Amino acid sequence: MYAIANNISSPEAPSTRLWMPERVLFTPAALEEPYGQQILSRVQSLNLPIEELARNRLTGLRGESDRDTYNIAKRTLAVVTAPPSSFKLSPIPPSADWQFHIAEGCPAHCQYCYLAGSLSGPPVIRVFANLPQILENLAAYEGSDATSFEVSCYTDPLGIEHLTGSLAECIRYFGTRTNGYLRWVSKFDAVDELLDLPHNGHTRCRISVNADPVSRRFEGGTASVASRLQALRRLALPRSSGGGGYPVGLVIAPIMSIEDWETHYTRLLDSISEALDFDCDLTFELISHRFTPGSKEVLQTWYPQSKLDMDEETRTVKRNKFGGTKYVYDTDTMKTLRRFFEGEITKRFPQGRILYWT
Ligand code: SF4
Q1: What is the pLDDT of residues 100-118, one digit of tens each?
Q2: How remote is the CA of residue 156 from the centroid of ligand 1, in Å?
Q3: Measured from the CB, is residue 110 less than 6 Å from ligand 1?
């Protein structure tokens, strides 16, 4: 196992944002897994307070109010085993063919968080100790053509990597596959331990970014956008220049029609151009802000003081085939935003591919 402490204290490495939980809980089933023992060694080497639970259920995570429960949960790492249901994968268009999970929950505090309404119960960060079984299961979903697997639907895998090492395991696994390709995305920046992995071009590393006022106001607990872009630069640089030589991507999300949005997003695109001033395999994913009745209700409990615009009156309702409702920007706003991003990206990054706008 690599020395995690180096990542924290190395004078050469740029300083990175590392989340340290106040409590680390292990279920008995997680401790029976050899990979659970590896996670245990990591958290022991970081001197984090560890509790071994008597049962496999997580209890005692609720506070006196919803806000207390949120605060307790977001400071807690729980090492558990993924349930049998998680071995049946679901598609995740337009991002990838399949999604799989190495963890659920995220230590950051984004006031628009995509997880709100998707995961039930207190937002504790659960990581899965049966990772080798989770990876073995993926082979059955790999087709005879390139098949992509998204690992960041329910977590920010880089945000907890110093505690788990699970993202590196995934990258190594996909480096050995013929048709399997991994995709992950993050708002953190501690990429040192990923740079030398044998990825074989089968992992696309993406960083999620936003305009400065959106990131500063709404993305608590994350690395700054400038640090994320430096991390992406290091992942994308060729190995001969000390980088990771990975295919990379930008997820610009959630795009918000804030005051002076054109100026702020132009600055963001300028920063991306500066960070990626060399040829690389680059993609863009463009996601406009949206919310559902369920996510709004959860977010208002988590962030009661938030100034995030979730006014249904100014949005258009979009229904999915399962009868779910989401609130998106109206058609004119969508068209204007889309035209701006597609035009600017094509002009600045002729080698970049825009994968989708939504
Ligand atoms: Fe939610 Fe992603 Fe922010 Fe984590 S980084 S709080 S998953 S939006």
Answers
A1: 999 999 999 999 998 998 8
A2: 7
A3: yes
